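Need residues for this backbone.
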């Protein structure tokens, strides 16, 4: 497997694990803020990001490439509000999307069809991830971000079910 692609995927593994770590920290913040629905949503999101990293690790292993796990920085643990949490989530997802698009382009340039097909899966996934975060932001903005409105959004978030896909 091309070294440039290997390096890019190793970086992506780090980015997915950083997202997992960041969302776990957000889940803890929500729990402390007495928002169990928000905490549940973020816990599931954290698990989903870990699954994204594992999917890349499996792909590298299957192709005989070298996985190099890197250290993760401490995630942000304090937030201004649930709206702040989901705004930062969307920002993070946009960075992930840009990174996935870069690997997709790289796989075209280096002629690596398998990576290209895998990146197609992540491209579709990112559309979903950005939409999910945007939807919650819109709900929080409509609800006014406190009191009964916030309680209703929290109840809605409590209904999220796991979407971790294994292939
Ligand atoms: Fe795996 Fe949300 O990016």
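Answer:
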């Amino acid at each position: 497997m091309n070294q440039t692609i290997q390096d890019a995927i190793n970086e992506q593994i780090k980015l997915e694990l950083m997202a997992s770590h960041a969302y776990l920290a957000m889940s803890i913040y929500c729990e402390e803020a007495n928002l169990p629905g928000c905490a549940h949503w973020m816990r599931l999101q954290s698990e989903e990001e870990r699954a994204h990293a594992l999917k890349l690790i499996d792909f590298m292993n299957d192709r005989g490439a070298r996985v190099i796990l890197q250290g993760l920085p401490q995630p942000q643990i304090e937030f201004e509000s649930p709206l702040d949490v989901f705004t930062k989530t969307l920002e993070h997802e946009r960075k992930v999307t840009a990174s996935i698009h870069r690997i997709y382009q790289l796989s075209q340039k280096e002629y690596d069809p398998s990576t290209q097909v895998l990146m197609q899966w992540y491209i579709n996934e990112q559309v979903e991830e950005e939409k999910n975060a945007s939807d919650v932001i819109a709900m929080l903005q409509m609800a006014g971000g406190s009191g009964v409105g916030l309680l209703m959004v929290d109840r809605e978030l409590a209904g999220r079910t796991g979407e971790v896909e294994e292939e």
